[in-house]
Amino acid sequence: MRFDIVTLFPAIFEGYMTQGLLGKAIQRELVQIHQHDLRDWAPQTTHKPVDDKPFGGGPGMLIQVEPTVNCVEAVEKKADQSARRILLTPQGKRFDQRMAEDFATSGRLMLLCGRYEGFDQRVTDILEPEEVSIGDFVLNGGEVAAMVIVDAVVRLLPGVLGDENSSIDDSFSRGNRLLEFPQYTRPREFRGHAVPDVLTSGDHKAIAAWREQQSLQRTKQRRSDLLRDE
Ligand code: ADE
């Protein structure tokens, strides 16, 4: 799967792409990530501004339509393939596991990261991206949101997780609307806190029943909305 990330701060992604599962997935060529610096498409070549004041007044600056549209079109043309375009904004549709599963089947995603007060509206009018938010809070820019999406999508791609780390049991994964049950590893006891006996009983049926009951209890206590949603 290929991700193209359009940003004013491409360096933000560098360390992130070499670490952990994502680093391995890139090394194994299961995933490609390309960052594109919007400034490379700035109309002026001296200071390379890509932002300007909003017409009608108001605080802050907007990212201009010209470099953004030119960048996206040039990147798609070079790859000879159009991408599913995603624009990160707090005004977008809320990202969730279902959306991650859908994105994971797309083959190619173009992620547009806003900064300042966001993009000129004509970016949306012309490029018609899907607008996506990672939650009801405001970040300094879309880069962290783009990393969240890449992270959640990559772990769903075939071959990225080993069998032993399958994403099927994840909270929120397809058909699973319960939170995960608690897990324990060695030692069996620490400062008077013991591992529940059932987990060391060897009784697999009892263990499965205990885990299911714990998942249900956790979900009721912490996220009862998940039990009500369709
Ligand atoms: N940019 C700023 N805040 C954001 C959010 N909550 N989700 C996606 N992109 C953003």
UniProtKB/TrEMBL annotation:
It is an enzyme of class 2 (transferase). It is found in: Cytoplasm. GO terms for biological process: tRNA N1-guanine methylation. It comes from the Bacteria. The keyword RNA-binding does not apply. S-adenosyl-L-methionine binds at residues 114, 134-139. Belongs to the RNA methyltransferase TrmD family. This is tRNA (guanine-N(1)-)-methyltransferase. It comes from Stieleria marina.
